[in-house]
Request: fold
Amino acid sequence: MKICILTTAHSPWDERIFHKEARTLQAAGYEVVLIAPYERAEENQGVRLRAVAPLQSRWDRLWRQRAIYRAVLAERPGLVHFHDPDLLPLALILQRWRRIPVIYDVHEYYGDSLQTRYWVPRLWRKALSRGVERFEKWAARCCAGIVTVNQHMAGLFRSGPSEVIVLHNYPLREQFRLPRPSAWKSPLVLYLGGMNRERGLEVILRALCIVRETHPQVRAVLVGPVDTSDLGAEFADLTVWEERANVRFRGRIPYEDVPDLLRECSIALVPLLATLNYQKAIPVKLLEYMAAGLPVVGSDFGYIREIILRNDCGLLKPAGDAQALAEGVCWLVEHPTEALRLGQNGWDAFAREYTWEKEQDKLLDLYARVLDGKKDDRER
Reply:
């Protein structure tokens, strides 16, 4: 059975799309084809990428739909699995007119996220957010299956006829099960993931400047793409902050290199701001930190608070408070025995509860149910 996985907003080698879902399906015997904007066609670990023209702007995500549609028809798949709300119109055509079952993979609360996007005029944000939410819920009812990332999100889609599952975006045990930390390392602070204002970049830099005043030996590495569009004017030149905060920006690194990076560090940060979207989301970076046995300093809200409290694996500080974040980092530096204990608690919790291997059977079961439903429709 051939499966086509579609995305416009993510890299085709995204950790959830490729490393978890596509590889799980390929290992289960499906022929998996990724269709996405990319520079060239490739094959990686048995998964084939069929590339369409790369994006030149955010709006190209809409203009690429015709090319993606043609690519799907050329592949003649038995099922289509797509990852972005802008592909919903295409999914409706495939499901209703072409009779190809589609699965919608909902990564986040897209309506909520629009309310903090700097590129959406402020006066339009609330109306656009509501419009996107309504269209998404209506269009999703026509899909054969819906994949969500937590129980709250699943509840928003369960009023329709679609098969709905919760597939937590937990790290791969085979890749992130790192050796149990046995000794305190030199203080290297880590932030992993995309960086902008709402993900706490301004707070991180201010906090690390404060840390340096009392602990000049503390260094930090910030790993991931940086978006400065919504930052204050004082952050226009980040090279200034590299010296002031004793921090290094490393940019995006391959997913396969993340475990080695985690081994180098001793403290990790989850300083997200309490936006509507992040209040309901489980940050994957938090779980990856736990897999490495790193004590965490995180924002005191939502799933961040729930996971850290339940597993006693870090410190909680008010979101957006640079002074409090700095105090958390300093406390861990000054109490290495406690920092090691918190990290070990996270290490144990990851293996017990938060691995992708505990989730993947849900995806395979959903595929089986959707494809059985397709078979039943044909036999009627």
Q: What stands out?
A: The chain has a mean pLDDT of 90. The domain at 2-168+359-379 is CATH 3.40.50.2000 (Rossmann fold). The longest helix spans residues 360-379. The chain is about 45% helix and 15% strand.
